[in-house]
Amino acid sequence: ESVARNLGVSLAKGQYLAFLDSDDVWFPHKLSKQLPILMNNPGIAAVFSQALSIDENGEQLGRLALGQSRKTSDFELENMFISNRIPGGASSCLMQRNIYNQVDGLSEDIRFGEDWELWLKIIVNYRIFFIQEPLIGYRQHSKTQSTIPNIVQVEERLEDYLKLLKRFAKKYPENVSKSLYNRSLAYQYFTAGLGSCFLGFIEKSKLWLNRAVNY
Q: What's the number of CA atoms in the CB half-sphere (13 Å) around residue 34?
């Protein structure tokens, strides 16, 4: 995804960037709700929104929108460094193109968490805004990356998350304390441990949960 998005950005000519993953949908009023915020607030780098989970047929999953309980503090660096609090992935984003270029866009060496790393690079330097309304449909089914179909994907996800966190902490040591770094690593190992346990890989689950406790 990162290679495709970066190529798209290099070809785009507008002042703003919006992303739409192939299996997600924008609601008709998405851009009209987001654009005025960027136009009238030059200090804001990106605007996000809640999302509705939908299945492969476009039917809503669950009663509540993703991000329903999000608060402003959820998008502060300390909380965002532990886990990606932006619901709906990149499809909910509208951002300033010059900011995207300033933070060097999406990293192309990871498959999982590339959008999370981008949000961190933005938040450490700029303000973002979150609209308390679902403006996109975020599709979830057996073939999306948001599911956990096998242990290989759990392992790859963990590897990429650890890689991006280490890279970010090294670049911004004044913003990421040792305590915060350890807490985030503990959370990544904890979620990987739960995923591997769910899939029946008990010994691997024990290993990762033990690492979570150590961190």
A: 30
State whether residue 136 is helix, strand or coil: strand
Alpha-carbon distances of 76 from 63, 122, 142, 148, rounded to whole Å: 27, 11, 32, 27
Report whether 191 contacts 146 (CB < 8 A).
no
3-state helix, strand, coil in the chain (%, to 5): 50, 15, 35
Collapsing DSSP to helix, strand or coil, 129 comes out as strand
Residue 142's Cβ-side half-sphere holds a number of Cα atoms within 13 Å equal to: 1
Both structure tokens of 131: 């609209």
| Stated pTM of the model | 0.92
Run of H or E including 116: helix 114-123
By C-alpha distance, which of 60, 34, 33 is closest to 45? 34
Nearest to 25 by CA among 66, 67, 54, 68: 54
Along the 215 residues of the chain, how does pLDDT read in single tens digits? 899 999 999 999 999 999 998 889 999 999 999 999 999 998 999 999 999 998 888 888 888 898 888 888 889 999 999 999 999 889 999 999 999 999 999 999 999 999 999 999 999 999 999 999 999 999 886 555 555 568 899 999 999 999 999 999 999 999 999 999 999 999 999 999 999 999 999 999 999 999 999 99
DSSP output for 49-83: EEEEEE-TTS-B-SSSPBTTT--GGGGSHHHHHHS
